[in-house]
Amino acid sequence: MVDDHGVVRLGLRALLAREPDIEVVGEAATGEEALAVAQRSQPHVVLLDLRLPDRDGVSVCRELHRRFPEVRVVILTSFADRHALVETVTAGARGYILKDLDNGALLAAIRTVARGGMALDPSLGPMLAEAMQGARGAGAAPARGSAEPPAMGPDPSRLTAQERRILECVARGMTNREIGRTLFLSEKTVRNYLSEILGRYGFRNRAEAAAYAVRAGIAGPGLRPGR
User: Fold this and answer.
1) Consecutive H or E run containing 212
2) % of residues, the chain, pLDDT over 70
3) Helix (H/G/I), strand (E/B), else coil: 98
């Protein structure tokens, strides 16, 4: 848990302590502390506030992703900031949750991300899709590794039926294993499909693909943390 307000960390710790499958292995009040704690405790999931006293949460997310690629970052913030949402998604965050989300949904989001899925606050799916589309306008998609968000995917009519089904599942926060069970595919086949979709259409990660699915009407009007 990374938040400069001790009362927030205390509340989160109390909530998570009641869950037998979740263990709090560390907490930090600053970005630099977060990096040190992550090095020491090797968490599976990091809950990260965007506004920290020493550096912004986006740069901390990017640094966590670079140093510890196996760590899954969930942004937990009070602000529905369009720019920060896009920046953290492209920096590698696996979730973006507002602090007013109810406890059950927050716990579901943490578990979804821990299993390898993604979690977006239900109110933010359309915002992410519109922001990433507007960031590119009519321009061509950049090469992977560019700091600029890519164009948001193909004309939906170009997608195969299976690609549409997989994108819908991704937008609902499902893991590869859950997608496989739903579509009667092996987990390896799902990984192959996703790798092909990301590469062919210029998505840098699952969150960008999920945002496209919402904008294109493939998934519902909002992304859900968990199923």
Assistant:
1) helix 206-215
2) 84
3) strand
Report the largest interatomic distance among the alpha carbons of the chain, rounded to a whole angstrom: 50
Domain range holding 188?
125-215
Look up the pTM and report it.
0.68
**Phi, psi dihedrals of residue 196, rounded to the nearest 5°:** -65, -45
Q: How far apart are CA 123 and CA 224, in angstroms?
A: 9
| One-character DSSP codes across 11-68 | HHHHHHHT-TT------BSSHHHHHHHHHHH--SEEEE-SB-SSSBHHHHHHHHHHH-
Phi-psi category of residue 128: left, alpha or beta, with phi > 0 → left and psi -120 to 50 → alpha: alpha
- The tens digit of pLDDT for each residue in 84-94 reads 888 888 888 88
pLDDT digits (tens, 9 = 90+) for 30-41: 999 999 999 999
Whether 78 is in a domain gets the answer: yes
For the chain, what is the domain count?
2
